[in-house]
Amino acid sequence: MKLIMAVIQNDDSQEVISELIKEGYHSTKIASTGGFLSSGNTTLIIGVEDEKMDDVIKIISEHSKVRSQYVPTNIYPSLEVGGTIKVQTGGATIFVMNVEQFLQI
Ligand code: 2BA
């Protein structure tokens, strides 16, 4: 069994979760905050059988959009000039881990 942790953008979360439900996958939604932008994103935790992992990743990637965002340059301590820089976020940042045990008691 695998544990998939997917960091996605808040705007995509409902669509991704709905698609996962439609295909019979369980997920847990966690409100998270990106370390760089310090803005809210969503982390989904999904436990799946090994053979279903690719299908889940496909669903997440198909419903997570790439977006651009402007952030103040003062986010970089080394840059003193004012203004903004363009940062691209998403579709999704995905971690896959092996699950040693899965218990529902
Ligand atoms: P944030 O940390 O808020 O990062 C948002 C976006 O800012 C990133 O998009 C990336 O394009 C940019 N970014 C992040 N750190 C940067 C840096 N030091 N210099 C320049 N640009 C930087 P994504 O790569 O798509 O990441 C989206 C979110 O996924 C991240 O939000 C964070 O919450 C999570 N994430 C990404 N990589 C991670 C990792 N290795 N471990 C844990 N979480 C991660």
Overview of the structural elements:
With 105 residues, the chain is of the alpha+beta class. It has one domain: Alpha-Beta Plaits (2-Layer Sandwich). 22% of the residues lie in helices and 39% in strands. The chain is built from two helices and six strands; from the N terminus they run βαββαβββ. The strands form two sheets. The chain has a four-stranded antiparallel beta sheet with strand order 2-3-1-6. A hairpin with a 6-residue loop joins β2 and β3. The protein is elongated. The mean pLDDT is 93.
Topology, pairings included?
Layout: E1 2-8, H1 10-22, E2 28-33, E3 40-48, H2 53-62, E4 67-72, E5 84-89, E6 92-98
Antiparallel strand pairs: 1-3, 1-6, 2-3, 4-5
Bound molecules: ligand 2BA.
